[in-house]
Amino acid sequence: MSQWDRLMLLSAGYIQQLQELYDRDGLPMDVRHYLSAWIEKQDWERAAQDHEHAVVLFQVLLENLDIQHSRFVQEESFLQQHNIRRYKQNFQIFQDEPCSLARTILWFLDKEKEILNRADLDEQVKQLHVEQEAMETSCQHELERKMAGLRNYVQCLEHEISCLEEQQDEFDFKFQTYKMEAGLDEASMKKRNQILQSLVNKLNECRKNTLANLTKLLSRAEDLIHLLVNKELVDWQRRQQKACIGAPDNVCLDQLEMWFTCVAVCLFQVREFLNKLEELVGKVSYENDPVKAQRPNLQRRADSLFKDLLQSSLVVETQPSMPQGKGPLVLRTNTQFSVKTRLLVKFPELNHFMKVEVSMVREAPHIKGYRRFNVLGTTTKALNMAESHSGGMVADFRHLTLKEQKSGGSGKGVNDISLSVTEELHIIYFNTVFEHKGFSVQLQASSLPVVIISNSSQQQSAWASVLWFNMLCQDPKDVTFFANVPAAPWPQFADMLSWQFLSATKRGLDDAQLGMIAHKLFGKQQNYDICKVPWSRFTKENSPDTFWVWFDGILVMVKTYLEDLWREDRIMGFVSRGKEKSLLKKMMRGTFLLRFSESIIGGITFSWVEITSTGEPEIKTVQPFTKNDLSQIPFHEIIRNFQIFDADNIPENPLRYLYPNIPKDEAFGKYYSEKRGDDSPYIKYIKTKLVFVSKENTLEARSPMSCDMTQGEGLEPISGPCGEAAEQEVDLPLQSQMEAYHCDPMLSDMSERQENELLLFLNNPNSFSDSDFLPHEAALPDFTLPGFNLPPPQACGGLFQ
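Below the sequence we write its predicted structure tokens.
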């Protein structure tokens, strides 16, 4: 089956994607449809590089359009005749550049394959999800079935005990009646005794059945409690751990609350049944009474099960968090934080009755210098249903703070284990007492381990610790986790990275982006799933060149300045320089893509295609922009107004199509400011900045996170225009800026390319005068740049680094 025929069989969603693909200019859908067989048989990849072959295919394409036109003439299809004739006229623009047409058709075919691949992948994922959902649904249905069975069993037992009471009342009535009778002969007395014995036997049998059914009911309850406490609650706790670090997991407690409450209600009824049996035994008992023998054991078992259920029912629904923190579980001393607990056993009669108290552990683990803290604020609150959207029993603490205790000898551990402040884990405890209908038990819940800092500069490292712990640790109370911290398997690590973007911007990382990161961390590998990232590679306190510092710098930049562009897939982002070059060299002139800097923390750059005089593609890259730049002018305005000098010394914007072929204004137009030129609100800032560009990305340093580090060959970032020197205002001597650039001897081709560096300018050449551009120009009468083939300074708006 042809590729086009396969596309026609896809579902409506993918057909919509196909229609959106062909809404672009370049290859009309009608042409693709009617010439599908011929188009798919041609070697467009060769034609994209071979001019002669491209000319041949171009001529054959026009001939095929003529043939198709003739068919429509015979069929008297006037509208199709008109369309085919118009398409042929439009294709004439490629007569001098047939390779460009070949690249366009090749791009459309590749995009079709991507749609097919997505459809195939989605079908596989859907199948897996169906199986997973079927499994989860099956487990849920099985649990619901057991719950229904438990409720039904309780109802049957309630009826059985009612019948037992009636039977006992009948026996008691006859026994008392017979006692009042006097003067009976021996035969009558024998008959009366036989009747009473028969009633006692029936009563005894009924009591035995009732006790047997109570035992079965407790076994059912025990089975359900095991499922709830050891599986469902544990699964929820793990989902909450992942949700704390950005995973889109469902952490709603309503279903668990319903199940916990159901079992609790049934166990309370069992306790009432046992009390009823004790009451019945007090009225009527006899030798070898089974209730007297078995009831105490049943009572102890019921109380034990109820206690087990209750002790797991107090949970931390919302983990401790500060209003302005990077995420939950990072707390700062003397700064307010909030936390919410919830009782999963919901008895409305206990509303506002149970008090929850917050505290921290008094005994420090055996860690050298382990700090201890006091919880201040409103540390006691009543469980109530008013503070919950779903009507659950919650205690919502909103005004708590932590204060470090003065260090004394008792606060020190006795072992040699020593951790940094941001590796030190602490747990907050919540205590209450459940009292209801004569049953009392102490309950305790604990938060996930929190990292406590005293300075906002520690937030980045603290959040890294929270990520690592909740990604890897299955024991939520292991405060010594970082004493022997494990490495992270790549699949879990990749998920965690994607969750950071997903939670911050509503768009995670795709496989290609994660693949680039994996390559940077491990080098080229056959299978990244077996690779592991050590903790020391991820982050190290007070070290500026760790992976997390680089990654978090990008995340903060995207969240603060680029969220809309990232969410709408305008930024490719995580793409290596080699991949960038391979993608762009096949594209038409002016095609550009946006990627994150691998060497500058929180930097974003763009590269574009120029065509040399020999017709070869040449990739040029602008020096990365940082938050210092983006805080002054939006990135879309940078792209909109970016200009360089062409061969005739005329400024032009080289950015035309966002990769692969989306017109720049179509991709970014809706974000543009309405004003341009001198009226632009950004013109003042645009006038005062310079930016540097190169053919290849030589200005950017080798990344400290590159795969070379795994082999002990990591390079230090080079200084120069991509460092601090390039961030200076233009009113500094320009010579000093260029002299600040030193070639790294390990980048062998750097010196050969220095003469290819260009000063780039942005905006209107009439924006300001020479004196505005170089205030100190008088001090540099003989200003020259050896090795740089530049025109003399002219009046032109300058863009920043």
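The radius of gyration is 38 Å.
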